[in-house]
Amino acid sequence: MLPFDSPREACGVFGISAPGKDIARLAYFAIYALQHRGQEAAGIATCDGRTAHIHKGLGLVSQVFNEDNLHHLQGHLGIGHTRYSTTGSPRLNNTQPYILETLDGPLAIGHNGNLVNAPRLRRELLERGVGLSTSTDSELIIHMLAGARGNWSQRIRQMMTMAEGAYSLVILTREAIYGVRDPWGLRPLVLGEFENGLAIASESCAFATIGGRAIREIDPGEIVRVDQDGYEIIQGVPREKAAFCTFEQIYFARPDSVLGGRLVHRVRQALGRQLARESPVEADIVVPVPDSGTPHAIGYAQESGIDYSEGLIKSRYIGRTFIQPTDRQRKVGVAMKFNPLPENLRGQRVVLVDDSIVRGNTSGPLVQLLRDAGAAEVHMRVACPPIRYPCFMGVDMASQSELIAAHKNLDEIKEYIGVESLSYLSVEGMMNTLRAQDGYCNACFTGAYPFETPMLEMELELKEKERFAGALGN
């Protein structure tokens, strides 16, 4: 796999109710729009009121589905999922949606997030005699739902009282689709509508691909029930102190999505402008690390008055791969993904703007590419604060020992990546730009997690998950 130096998300989820429509095709286009949230696996499950149908596989959405397998996904209800693994390796049995047959008909779920109390829940299920076939948190959720009592809304409420952590869910039953968001609101979830139908998605960008629009964001702790008669919103559990993941605004969400009533692209431009105010430098051009650093760089250029210029071209056809590279190929991985534009860079003092630095294993090679193409100086500007702590809520931030800012100071990082100067956006500047002093989870910057569970206990729980995954061979 190519080296990476940005956080990686867990999943994208989608649910739809549309009698008389080609559900499978609509779900396909919607999860295609959510491909940026997970590129390891994809799946769609549908239901016609009696029988559920499912197809899923490893790879991109366009690799998993074709006309033949979409044709067999019949029904007026459906859910879809794109996966990037944070717990459980990229194997077919870890691919979602998960599906079970219950006394009340088929049950399927798609999950975005990570439960911090998963090992405890896993032990409780095993003690009850429930057999588990994967190491994922999502399998725990479907078994908790299947084993609960009452109607599906009551079962979901019971599950929500037991699950601690990040979960945005789409749930398929024979009668309805449910959208569920954890009480902290860590991951996004949006309700939308289109002609003769309703939908639920991780991001509003999924609705545009099927001719729809967003109605509203699903609030923390809410359950939304969607069927052919409309939608109903239920408060599943009381809201906790809001802790929406800051990285949705910085990096994860597609720029054309709307979060908190604001277009993500405009928020990222504003972060870039704040970065320019905090960390000015004399330079000739502002160059983004494409594509995620582009709106930040545009904002930096607007505020600083320095010309914006393309300096790196990204190959958009190099995605995730399951073919393991050799050591030599790893070393040239950045050159495979990015190509410099020497005519734009030669003799220029460059401000290189990126959304984040995680391990630092991409920044140095990128800087060297610019120098080899003739850049006279390279000044690095990062549109978020230093990442010093791991995430336990469904984002692959790496372990703390791998986070470069956890064990190197600013000067040491500057030396490591080989730049003339290096600056990060401050936490205060970031929060002012987001127009919020709270309501966001900034644990990866500050170490202040939204849960009472201490970091050491969470690290032990992650090790327990890894042990369990090893025992299952996945």
CATH superfamily of the largest domain: Aminohydrolase, N-terminal nucleophile (Ntn) domain
The figure for the number of domains is 2
CATH architect. name of the largest domain: 4-Layer Sandwich
Please give the order of strands in the largest beta sheet: 3-2-4-1-10-9-11
At the first level of CATH, what is the class of the largest domain?
Alpha Beta
Measured on Cα atoms, how large is the radius of gyration?
22 Å
Q: Which residue ranges are poorly predicted, with pLDDT under 50 across at least 5 consecutive positions?
A: 320-325
Individual helix count:
19
CATH topology of the largest domain: Glutamine Phosphoribosylpyrophosphate, subunit 1, domain 1
Extended strand count: 24
Helix residue percentage = 25-40%
How far do the termini sit from each other?
Answer: 18 Å
What share of residues are in beta strands? 25-35%
Class computed from helices, strands and strand pairing? alpha+beta
Instruction: Identify the overall geometry.
Output: globular
